[in-house]
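Researcher: I'm preparing a figure for a lab meeting and need a structural model of a single chain. I don't have an experimental structure, so a prediction will have to do for now. The sequence is pasted below. Please return the structure as tokens so I can convert it later.
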Amino acid sequence: MSAVLGINAAFHDSSAALVVDGSIVAAAEEERFSRRKHGKDAVPFSTWELPLQSAQWCLDAGAIGPSDLDAVVYAYEPGLAQRAGPDITDLKWEGLRTLFAERAPLFLEAGLPGIDRTRVGFVAHHLAHAASAFLAGPHRSSAVMVLDGRGERSSYLAGHSHDGGFDVLARVALPSSLGFMYEGLSRHLGYRAGTDEYKIMALASYGEPRHLEAFRRLVRLDGNGGFVTDPIDWSTFAPAGTGDGTLDPAHADLAASVQRRLEEVELDLATWLHDRTGEPALSMAGGVALNCVANSWVFDAGPFEDVWVQPAAGDSGTALGAALLKATALGDNVQPMETAALGREWSDAQIEATLRDAAIVFERPTNIADAAAAVLAADGIVAWFQGRSEFGPRALGHRSLLAHPGRAENLERLNLVKGREQFRPVAPMVTLERAKDVFEGGPIPSPYMLFTHRVRDEWRDRIPAVVHVDGTSRAQTVDRADEPLVHRMLSEFERQTALPVVVNTSLNTAGRPMVDDPRDALECFGSAPIDALAIGPFLIRRRTR
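Model: Understood. Here is the structure written out token by token.
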């Protein structure tokens, strides 16, 4: 039996996770504490900032001190890192990154007094990603696929998890990288590489894959379960963009071409992996696994009966994977994650004290879910702050902005509230028992909002705010047993409107991390045109002049 702290601070999305006696106790990104989104908003060195605040909170959540830890695991292996080639965009930092990782035991000992530096070890980045999928997921044996920009010197890992072990079946060495390809496109269109790829995925739905044949030549299978990506001169396909949110048809066509080739390659990789393992289930992690359109293509067109994606599939999830892997090595019977709600929470008394200190006028309705549903039914926007915050980039009914899906103008309205590009969609949440009535394709249940689903024809005009230009939605299904409060809100909204769906997007504004604590919630509510804040059992209404 052991206590293991996992740490990610190698590239971005700095995070910490605590596993005690094989059970996941807590996990959180540092950005929720520092308020620097992805850790990229300060000087370049903060890209690798140690997650000292989130790590301390994890320890507090487990009621243990640094000296009680049996192991601390850093999700990057400096011994594997080497100069991979001139096409690695952040190569100038490679020596510093490796030095930083090598000295992590000293930094952690200084930042968390009581940690025994001799108990700090390292796990390869992609192995940590893989463990976050096959150990945290529901399948005790599965095919495993990790796709991202890079690890220490590779960009892809495929393997087979079975009988408590993991066999590596394929790797792709840098500079070939599907993640870097997508990052390169983001950079060319004027968006932030490594951060804004989800915007490119949304943009792709507005275009036609006119350059697909060219990308089939540039991105090829290698015959051994991997792929090769050639250097790409993006200017030969479309002029550079400014990232100003303009919907340029040439940019949309280029995004559609890259997205389609990504989907094709992922499906081929998954098919190869299925042939090698014979497993009915596929577990996925890595930043590219946050591409819900590609995930759905692999599920719908691929050979696997089930596809499970780590909710924190990006680099933040490697802290959890590293901790789970070390706990397994120490002999613990590791338990899969039952929820992504692994972050901070506040008691009703703590929330009330914060509201009173801020001199906020609030009420305590008989049931907060019913009260929020009434505001939504009247076409109000509700900031929803309930329970523990989510681990990963998706708002799953704990730190959410909610709205009525039956009014098409609410898409523009929410994007204006959040300061987002108007071509970006918003997502629906739906009660599990009604999900198949409204959506088809993709896996159902889908509790982590990591797949797209086609909206049934008869529902497209009824919930236009959540129907993307391609007729799909990135739906989250809500099970009463797992999320009783959210389920009640949805059920009451359906009772009042005959719609079992509510718009759900993350509770934040552009450039800011997702709201995490009550003060963040009040700040967001005070600075954006939100009609009501449902925070714990309390409701705050926007007062009008």
